[in-house]
Amino acid sequence: MSIGRRTRLALGIVTVAILVFIYLPIGLIVVYSFNSGTTPAWPPVGFTLDWWALAVRNSGLQQAFLTSIVAALCATAIALVLGTLASIAVARHRFFGRESISFVVVLPIALPGIVTGMALSTTFAQVGFPLGFFAIVVGHATFCIVIVYNNAIARLRRVSGSFEEAAADLGADQWLTFRTITLPALRSAIVAGALLAFALSFDEVIVTIFTAGGVKTLPIWIFQSFRLANQLPLVNVAGVVAILLSVVPVYLATRLSSSVVGART
Amino acid sequence: MRRLAAWLHRRPRTRLGLLLAGPIAWLVVIYLGSLAILFLNAFLSRDAFSGATVYQPTLDNFARLLEDPYPGITIRTLGMAAVVTLTCAVLALPIAFFMARVASPRLRNTMVVAVIVPLWASYLIKVYSWRLILAEEGILNEVLGAVGLRGPGFGDVAVWLVFTYLWLPYMILPVYAGLDRIPDSLLEASADLGGRSWMTFRRVVLPLVLPAVVAGSIFTFSLTLGDYIAPAQVSTTIFIGNAIYAQFGAGNLPLAAALSLVPLGIVVLYLLVARRLGAFEAL
């Protein structure tokens, strides 16, 4: 379609406006984290590094940050193993109920977080599994599986299974085939999946609220600080950190894999 | 290891079993099991005096769904989800069109990353940022005040803005992919037959990209239905999510469980309609 110059210009202007709309609120948090004022009043009163210095020394914030990192690493590790196993089973085997596997994998992220959260917390209470760190990890791992699975299966579908068959014909056993053929083909896809799973877990708040008990992750700390007026300047700092820790892994993942786009639902 | 591998090679069923045991145990036993327990609770009731759960099957909770205030809350939530979805579609079309049809390949790739990355940035902080923007003395009133206008403040309009902001990238990405798939030859054919830009857009591009818009709407629609944090931060309006959370917080798990079947049922219905419109191929 030949697009006229005026149409191009108009489209360009709208596009820039939408990108500004997307980035402005994020940029604003960065600005406020250096604002010496303590209210949302615009324009900022002055520049200060005090909030950053305070945030670094705030033990509650430190603890929450650390908890989030460790929980995200644990959830990612579980999701990495289970997601990869499931993707190999679905992509390389035929069996009864194969379609339902893909469905069950997506379900935890397709259903509203509040449903997943209530279901897990009710069940944990019923079976006597204590809420807290491990409950958070179980919840996060559940909805992170799909992220690894989606990335891995997209790759497996592109890489023909005949390489694996050829390796087997040449005398390689299952383990050797997996190590030298399947794993190298999958590596960048599952690394991308793991980065995304980490970002998703690090950022998750709804399921976490239901499973945390008294434990605070960074999003829980931020959420609870919304109600504490004197804590709000620190929320801006925590926000910048939270944004960086989800955005950087995602950016790296986009460099590694092309199937990042629809991974988060 | 060798011998184990050889043994496994002769037993594909065992191999499959080992691959699937972990994922199935986790997802079916822990996850589906939890969901089943939650939904069984919807058929129980709570003793009005002691607050204890009464283990006697009943449909009372479902009857409550039809009593005030729940039908109103459901309709309000559906309306919000529809308006948010429509707004996202209207905003996504021009930017996605620019990405797919105007931008150079390099700019296009940069823009895809530029749209994906903020989608993953801290959800809570994005909501919080709108509280700063919409505050009485915040940036929006300050900027609009210069031309004698005022921002919407906190309330339903704020909820609409925040939801649109949060879910817009989910709409842009599938619509971009959909526009990118339309072959140039179709657009050239339309131009050859005398179709002007607008005519080609309306008669050729729009029908072809519709499944992608529906695919995007699955996200915008269902994410709006289930959210309870964003509305509570910028308004006092009760949506389904807030109602569920309130009942759960009040200890009435049976009613909360029954209520959570409302967004669930709507999402399932929506998915069925979306599949008929070809949205799943466009995902």
Describe this structure in a few short sentences.
The complex is a heterodimer of chains A (265) and B (283). By secondary structure, chain A is mostly helical. Chain A is built from eleven helices and no strands.
Structure, explained:
The complex is a heterodimer of chains A (265) and B (283). In chain A, helix 1 (5-33) crosses helix 11 (232-256), helix 3 (59-92) runs parallel beside helix 6 and helix 4 crosses helix 6. Chain A is built from 11 helices and no strands. Chain A has a single domain, classed as Orthogonal Bundle (MetI-like fold). Chain A has 265 residues and is an all-alpha fold. Chain B has 283 residues and is mostly helical. Chain B folds into 2 domains: 17-58, no CATH class; 70-276, MetI-like (MetI-like fold). Helices cover 76% and strands 1% of the residues of chain B. Chain B has a two-stranded antiparallel sheet with strand order 1-2. In chain B, helix 9 crosses helix 10. The longest helix of chain B is centred in the N-terminal third of the chain and has 33 residues, at 70-102. Chain B is globular. The mean pLDDT of chain B is 89.
